[in-house]
Amino acid sequence: MSRYIVDSVSNGTIVYFIIRDTSNNSIVPLPTKYLKFKKNLGRKKKTLKNIALKLTWYLNYLEDNKLTINKVLELSAFEQQEHFTSYLHFIRAGRHTASGKCPDNNTANDYLRSIFDFYDFVILEYDNGTALKVLRDSTFVYTNSIGLRYAKTVKTFHGYLPREEHHAKSITEDDLHTLISSARTKRDKLLLLLLEETGFRIGEILGIKYTTDIDFENKKVFVRYRETNPNGAYAKYAEERGARISNSTFDLLMIYLTDTTELRKNTDYLFVSESGPSKGKPLTLSGVNSLFERLEKRCGISGHSHMLRHYFANERRKAGWDMAQISTSLGHKNIATTEAYLNVEDDELAEANDNYFVESMKFVNINDFL
Predict the structure, then answer these.
(1) How many CB atoms lie under 10 A from the CB of residue 182?
(2) CATH of domain 173-315
(3) How much is the pLDDT for 35?
(4) Neighbours of 199 (CB within 10 A)
(5) What predicted TM-score, i.e. pTM, was given to this entire model?
(6) CA atoms 290, 291, 295, 300: torsion sign
(7) Would you say the C-alpha torsion 207, 210, 212, 214 has a positive or negative sign?
(8) Rg of the chain over all Cα atoms, to the nearest angstrom
């Protein structure tokens, strides 16, 4: 039976995750303080819960092996290497949960990275100069399209499991054109176009409020983090991100807003359900999934919202965007692919997007709706 579990407390408006010791029903101070630290950095509820689960798995592993955080810090480099390598195989074998589900190598490595991040917090919190001996400096170097060279040094572990390659599914331009053509309402066409033109996650798209999140003058749509969206849609990080949309898509947006004024009279969310018991309420993820199911029946193309996010990245790369622009637009936080690519300005992204719209074939003729 696991000694350490994830629990939560609320002050009425804000939920905090805690780690509880079931042997005496007490809160475990250090990992709980780390979770609050992460919340203050803007991590969303789902992310915080995942971090909390990873911490409990590791704390239970320490308990089973009669170790503590301080004892691990005191181990020799060889002993630390053995400890963390053994933990990776423990996770990979599915022994961390009662279900026995075995994560792949990449997921197991990610779990260990979270533990290393926790150790970083512990070391900074106590400021005692003790560091994990198994972490080594690695430098990532990137040269952009005009020859400027960026470098960032990070700590890495040389015992990670071999990376497994995943080939993320994208969608072809022809298939995307067919999907948009098969969409029967302005809402559905607009949703597909915004996914393709912004690269936003579906939760970010569904969280857009037309009253606050659209810059009509500059034809720009914004992601803004909220924990209270009634449709359960959330941005991944507590940060603001914006993307300019094409003239034709902006025109369709204006027509959609005009035609659906009555439908949206009780909400300021951009996308709402158009029929059924939830008519007029903010559109949900299940509603988007149903849309893709309907489109597949009509045109035979199996798709989902994340495929359009991959399409966005692939097409921008073909159009000459560098990785810094793509990563910033997608809102990525991976240290090796995003944090090392610094100083991407909003004006640079807007200019690159404008160039893309001019040079690329668009999928909607606004005259069809006038």
Answers:
(1) 18
(2) 1.10.443.10
(3) 95
(4) 23
(5) 0.58
(6) negative
(7) positive
(8) 24
